[in-house]
Amino acid sequence: MLSSASRDSVVSVFDGFRIDLDDHNDRRERLIKSSRDITNLSKKAIFLLHRIMTDDAPSGEQDDRSRNARAAARGREKLKEIQKLFAVVGEEVAGDRFWRYQRNVSPGLQEYIEALSFTHYLETGKLISYNEVQQTLCSESGVSYFPLPLEDYLLGLSDLTGELMRYAISAISQRGGRIKASNVCTFVRNCKADFEVYTPHIRDLRKKQNVTAQSLEKIEDAAYTIAVRSSEYDIPLDMLDDFVARTVAMESGGGGKKRPRDGDHDRDADDEY
Amino acid sequence: MDSDNVDRINQLLEQDVELREKIKDQVAEFDKKTRTMSGILNRIHSTPSDGLPALLTSVQPVLDSCKDVTASLAAIIPPNQFWRWKEMWSISLRNAVFSAALIHYLQHGTLLSLSEATDILGIKSEWQDRFSLPIEDYLHGLITLVNELSRLAVNSVTLGNFEQPIKISVFVKDLFAGFSMLNLKNDTLRRRYDSLKYDLKKIEEVVYDVSLRKLAPSAKAENPAPMVE
Question: What is the predominant subcellular site recorded for this chain (chain A) (predicted)?
Fold first, then answer.
């Protein structure tokens, strides 16, 4: 009698909690889904940029600058689609909600920053600034959808170096690609130095810095091959391209495998003792 | 990176570092208070029922002083950033809820509600986006309460209080029925909820032992000297 009355009141209170918790879980699911959609679209934008930069230029487009501008313009179109998704996310995380769901939104946001910064690099040759990224996440009236977390900004940029490595390596085999590769090399080296000071503050940045270091090394090795080969007189340009292509194939295939193989070797040695 | 951007980043970083330090100081304070309370409340397992009110009164000032910490935190946290920092203090907050709920149960025999817990900790509704008591943290506190009560059920019998396990059993079953209403995700709350059934089982065994040996209050009248055996 008495116990059933107290049971009823407890249950009705928890009923209210359930509604609240369900609401929270549903919202989180929706945001995870949005983040995944944003990631997908961002990856597509990055692939699109790579394609435009490596495709044979259409006749009439002679210089690199117009090709870059064309790529950036197409990139911007794609990015606009993503920005629409961010507008929806913004409504979902209004007020104090943003930081509750920041971790659910962050993967998509970082991928978007990667695509955005790649576009920005092709357009201007510069690293996009924090404020510039935040400006792309604003409504037309200038109200930001949510505050841009510093860690997402830096981690997104850190992924850019990997894309630039791919861009530089594939550019090397193109006419004028060597200057491009050397520019990228300098740029990535600066990025690495710039980000280093933030590693103590941003979790995961250390790991990404290591990836950046690997990317940088690949570009440097490719650049080295070119320098060595170009110093030899009398070598035709197309042959030089063959050399580079070979180095690239070795690097992109061998770079990852090398270390595990060393590890295997050590393990074998240990087993013997 | 151009210098404007570096300045902007450093400015954001410095703000965060400074804020984190300030929060840490408050959390250390909060933690000290909740440890003090748990320390005192641990004595309920060895204090006979007639000594309990005095014991509970002695915790009250510490519990009241938690209001200072929540007020300081609410003053430090920037608008809309509650969820950004809350993990720094959620353990302390859960422990504070636990102590408050335990005191409330021992004084009134009922469940401390979320809004009562919020009031006791001095959390104001206008702080909503800077400091609040989330349902999850409240529920964590209640699970700790059940853990503690299953111990109390055992120890109260040792102290000769045969009524307590039965009261605890009813109370905890009600709470468990409440928790069963929730659709919990695979998180720590879910795991801790799953462990509640062991507490329930332990309490049931105590109730069983007490009833079987006719030590329970209803049987007491017939057998006035249950301890003699």
Answer: cytoplasm
